[in-house]
Design a protein that fits this description.
Elements: E1 12-16, H1 21-35, E2 40-44, H2 56-70, E3 74-77, H3 89-102, E4 106-110, H4 117-132, E5 150-154, E6 164-167, H5 172-179, H6 200-214, E7 220-223
Parallel strand pairs: 1-2, 1-4, 2-3, 4-5
Antiparallel strand pairs: 6-7
Helix pairs in contact: 1-5, 2-5, 3-4
Length: 239
């Protein structure tokens, strides 16, 4: 396992098990946040080296191209083994160190309800790190204690009933262009390895349109929050 990358402070830290996970789930939201002047960092946990299509070199190039289209501040990779991410103390510490270094206001990470074991493991690691990073006396050598103000989970291969949905009608076409950066993952001739039979762009498009229809817009990205979110009364009415 490689040493943990050094993350610079940012407003938003989006964690994905594999290159393209963050984009499938949240590229539209990240595009809107960057357009609003927020700084975004993506942290990939593995390099997707055991995937059925695309070499590590291919996926590195694709991830870099997608990050450029998104306009993120930084993209790094933890270098954990693909299909072998484990919830142990060493990996937890690397997550805590990353969170304390980045000090984001918003943390995005996978939801634990998923068929892919890496997604499940990264969900658990992010939740552990979210709590432990805020404890002053937990591993102070990993940096000053810090906990993001907001932690949202995004769905992967299985449906999760969202608690919030981000309207991305204004950037749906831009999101598609971001996903097209992952050429090795598009339109495979043999689809038997795909859990839902859809490639990354098809899966994102179908899901975003479904959740968009549910809130009366062209497309939306679903997220899940543990418990109620504060809402100002003035936000209940449009305009």
């Amino acid at each position: 396992m490689t040493t943990a990358p050094t993350l610079r402070p940012c407003d938003v830290l989006a964690i994905g098990a594999h290159p393209d996970d963050v984009e499938i789930a949240a590229a539209g939201t990240l595009l809107l946040l960057v357009a609003a002047g927020r700084s975004v960092t993506i942290l990939d946990v593995t390099r997707g080296e055991t995937g059925s299509r695309g070499t590590v070199a291919d996926r590195d190039v694709e991830a870099k191209a997608a990050a450029a289209r998104l306009g993120v501040r930084q993209r790094e990779n933890l270098g954990c083994p693909d299909t072998g991410v484990t919830v142990d103390e060493t990996t937890t510490a690397r997550f805590v160190a990353a969170l304390r270094a980045a000090r984001p206001q918003l943390l995005l990470a996978p939801h634990a309800h998923d068929v892919h074991p890496d997604h499940v493991a990264v969900a658990a690691l992010a939740e552990r790190a979210f709590f432990l990073a805020g404890l002053t006396n937990f591993a102070p050598q990993l940096g000053a204690a810090y906990r993001p103000a907001l932690f949202l989970r995004y769905p992967g291969n299985r449906h999760v009933e969202p608690t919030v949905a981000a309207d991305l009608a204004a950037v749906a076409d831009q999101k598609a262009e971001v996903l097209r950066c992952y050429r090795s993952q598009l339109d495979p001739p043999d689809r038997r390895h795909l859990v839902q039979g859809l490639d990354v762009l098809e899966r994102a498009t179908v899901r975003d349109r479904y959740h968009g229809a549910r809130i009366g817009t062209r497309a939306a990205e679903p997220f899940w929050h543990d418990g109620p979110l504060p809402l100002r009364a003035t936000a209940l009415l449009p305009g």
